[in-house]
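Methods: example folding runs. The two proteins below were folded one after another, and each record is reproduced exactly as written to the output file, sequence line first and structure-token line second.
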Amino acid sequence: MLTFIGLGLYDERSITLEGRDAIADADRAFAEFYTSKLVGADVADLERFHDATIEVRDRPGVEQDPEEILAAAEAGRAAFLTAGDTMISTTHVDLRLRAEERGIDTRVVHAPTAESAASGLTGLQNYRFGKATTLPFDYAHGAEGLPASVTDVLDDNRDRGLHTLVYLDIKVGWSPSGGRSGDAEDEYMTADEASGMLAEGYEDVLAVAVARAGSPNPRVEADRLSELAERDFGDPLHLLVVPGDLHHIEADALESLAGAPSELVTVE
């Protein structure tokens, strides 16, 4: 059995009770933190909280050579842990399909996601979101200006009046000058940095910065991208939302919950 378990959004306590029970029942627990991570807890915190040894796998150890995980699942009960909800990333779906192809039973234990938190914290209705996108660091995509993968999604959603969730890049063990490095520190794009990048093409567009969703003290602020680019939103993780057409409840929420200037939250 291979059980995929979402750890939630912030620290070791963000997991569901069902997820905690599943870890306790597992013979071996694996985890990856390259797609996202808990900024309020490290692996040692998780191991103490769950009284379990957690074997952290890097990207190649999940995507290219997951044999150890699959073998553990064939021999007994294996758990695979990720931040957020465990099935948001396609790499985890691929691992589940590999297990199913080998006749290994699989199970998914869900948890809160950045997407659901962004909707809940901003007051923007979840069914009014269009396709999401990820804003990469300049050195990661290698092109000048904003990549088409971002602008195409933003432009299409805005044309349709839909909100856009913009995930911000995370680099684990990455050196801008030399690629991956065991000595490099993890790097997290901030909401002000992302706002500055997007403001090059969308200067006066309304956006919402969300910092530390799932923590006891999340921060949510709405303003023009050019204004958000001048602020400091503190510790990671951050994300941005670019609203589309607003329902009057959404407009009220952005003013009341995120401090949006009234002239920017006109109702369509």
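Second run, written to the same file directly after the first:
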Amino acid sequence: MPELPEVETTLRGISPHIKNQTALKVIIRQPKLRWLIPTELPQLIEQHTLQSLRRRAKYLLLNFDTGTLLIHLGMSGSLRVITDNTPVAKHDHFDIQFTNNKSIRLTDPRRFGAVLWLGTDPESHPLLSKLGPEPLGTEITANYLYQKSRSKKVSIKQFLMNQDIITGIGNIYCTEALYTAGINPVRAAGNISLQRYQKLLDIIQNILTLAIEQGGTTLRDFVGSDGKPGYFKQELNAYGRAGQPCKRCQQPLSEIKQAQRTTVYCSSCQT
């Protein structure tokens, strides 16, 4: 699933081509994604200007002069800039054509993505209204995480992936952050000190920032190709390395399931 850095890179990749442009035509080829694409979207968007774009958690928000469109890439989706004569492939479900001869196209083989109209008050929508602070925003602090975690028996990994607590930290980068911080992913969130939360938050921010910076080298991929930045060819220390030697102590990395998500960690180094 695309995580925060991939969504941020998508945002940066498409923005220069469509910001301040007027939507000419909306094409809905397959309305049945995670939720039905609203049939009234053409009337809401066509002939209106895309004033700005932003990311909230893993959602892309396109702000038109009539309201806000939400796009989610789901498990395997991608959003790219194309020209109007680009051939349509099997899983190309949704386009917005602009008057500058550029379009954005949502490709989603598994159809777990979403295209929803949020109107003029997007923050009140159920998908956004309860989201916690951004991990790279000014609102997030170690003390905030520490206070939110008090008396919590849930594991630190599940705590960090709770979007009501902090947004946008997915399985891959959460696994990497806990490994780097030396924190066992099954440790109760309420049993972690303020000092360790400070170290953990610093690492989370460093990992996400580095991933976004690496993604910047792939921005050209959003024009005329598959639009998938991947995971930026980042060298992963834990995720996907179950059974391989820990890069610190050489002990084999362990793999467990937490809330139906795979967790890889070092039982020796992470305490």
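Comment on the second run: The two ends are 28 Å apart (CA to CA).
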